[in-house]
Amino acid sequence: MGKIAGIDIGGTKIRFGIVNELGEVLAEWTIPTKIPLYPYLEEQILRMKMDFPDLSGIGIGTRGMVDAETGVITFEKELEGWQGTAVKSQLETATGLRVECNNDANCAALAEVQLGAGKGFRRAACLTVGTGLGGGFIFDGRIMNGANGGAGEVGHMILYPNGLLCGCGRKGCSEQYVSGTALRRLIREENVIDPETRDLAMPQHLFRLAVDGVASAISVRERFLSDFAIVISSLQAVLDMECVVIGGGVSDSADDWWDLLLERVEPLKLKPFEMRRAVFGNEAGMLGAAMLIVD
Ligand SMILES: [Zn+2]
Prior knowledge:
By secondary structure, the protein is α/β, with parallel strands linked by helices. The protein has eight helices and 14 strands. The chain has two domains: 3-109 and 283-291, Nucleotidyltransferase, domain 5 (2-Layer Sandwich); 120-277, ATPase, nucleotide binding domain (Nucleotidyltransferase, domain 5, 2-Layer Sandwich), CATH 3.30.420. β11 (193-194) and β12 form a beta hairpin. The longest helix is centred in the last third of the chain and has 25 residues, at 215-239. The chain is globular and about 60 Å long. The mean pLDDT is 96. Bound molecules: zinc ion. InterPro entries: ATPase_NBD, ROK, ROK_cs. It comes from Cytobacillus praedii.
């Protein structure tokens, strides 16, 4: 198949990669995101095509919701003007190459299942615990997209009816309880003080403080992990997956909480399934975007 371009479009930067069908990265670079996005992106892609004339296709992962069949951005509020853009057809016309487009969390999930922690599992759910809580479901090597490209929005499953207000306008979504943002709130609520800085603990240090026995940090950890376990168990009830892969910024500290999460999930399991830590970091979206072209 030769070389494929994988492009991951985020709110502040765009990551480009040239990848072979085995997922090996041959070249990689990052540029800032600019508005209006489409003309800028097309210009950058045409330049890339001159540097790599033997590309067999271009895969694009982007913020927002994407109609994977038409490659049109169906919902995106942060990147002005991006919603409604027919990314696939416009870029196919401009480059003469096959172009596929999907949501960035779905692409990250595809990377983990095709090349990473979920390799070998036919049915996998991948969760990204970062600022928010994202997800992607890969069944038989394919992304489950849903009617609007909105499948896998794990962070907007309602966990607590009439709970905290969510960015989606509803109340009690799981993202308000299981995410880096949620950790920040829990740290304030439980008044977790980092003995080193004598100030409120940073989310990335929270689990270390809990391991060290700081009582307030332990109670944040307990609230966080028990909610997380419920989310995972609900996913099993609807998906019956064989494997859950967990990545994202919060999982950088997973050495300090992984086994405790497994303990909490275990009694909630309807049937056995595996839980794995993601192997890719920030490159997951770019790699998975490239894998959109590998059938
Ligand atoms: Zn929500």
